[in-house]
Design goal:
Bound molecules: zinc ion
Order of helices and strands: EEHEEHHEEEE
Strand content: 35-45%
Strand order of the largest sheet: 1-8-3-5-6
CATH topology: Jelly Rolls
Number of strands: 8
CATH architecture: Sandwich
Shape: elongated
Number of helices: 3
Structural class: alpha+beta
Radius of gyration: 16 Å
Distance between the termini: 17 Å
Helix content: 10-25%
């Protein structure tokens, strides 16, 4: 089953917790695998802490430190090479195990859509593979 999550991001750099939206697609699937994929070159998907929101702020700030927006040497005409680098750093997708009808995430883990060149309308895809019993 293929599902879509449509998002309107609000900030230039932002991490949006999409765990509940992914979980909503599981319905009564007990065992399997879910793949969450971002079809964008300046956004990505990561799994990280969902307890302290300062973790997200620190991740975004440190990515900014590693990949400053203004680099005179950058050749890319759009001027958003930093966003492309951040997207490749976090990756375009994540895979999560479905076990006993739930996402097999750690207690403090959430799935995040990572915007690096917003605000924009974004889409990510959720593909669920049900394990045959
Ligand atoms: Zn670009």
């Amino acid at each position: 089953m293929l599902h879509e999550i449509n998002l309107q991001t609000k900030k230039h750099d932002e991490m949006i917790d999409i765990t509940a939206r992914v979980e909503a697609f599981l319905e009564n699937i007990q065992e399997g695998i879910v793949v969450v994929f971002s079809s964008h070159t300046t956004a990505g998907i990561t799994i990280n802490e969902n307890a302290d929101p300062d973790v997200q702020k620190d991740i975004l700030r440190r990515l900014d430190e590693i990949y400053p927006w203004d680099m005179a040497e950058d050749r890319h005409i759009e001027g958003n090479s930093a966003a492309h680098l951040k997207a490749s750093t976090v990756g375009a997708s994540q895979t999560v195990i479905i076990h006993n009808g739930k996402l097999l995430l750690g207690r403090w883990q959430g799935i995040y859509f990572c915007e690096f060149d917003g605000p924009r309308s974004r889409t990510c895809y959720v593909r669920i593979h049900k394990q045959n019993q």
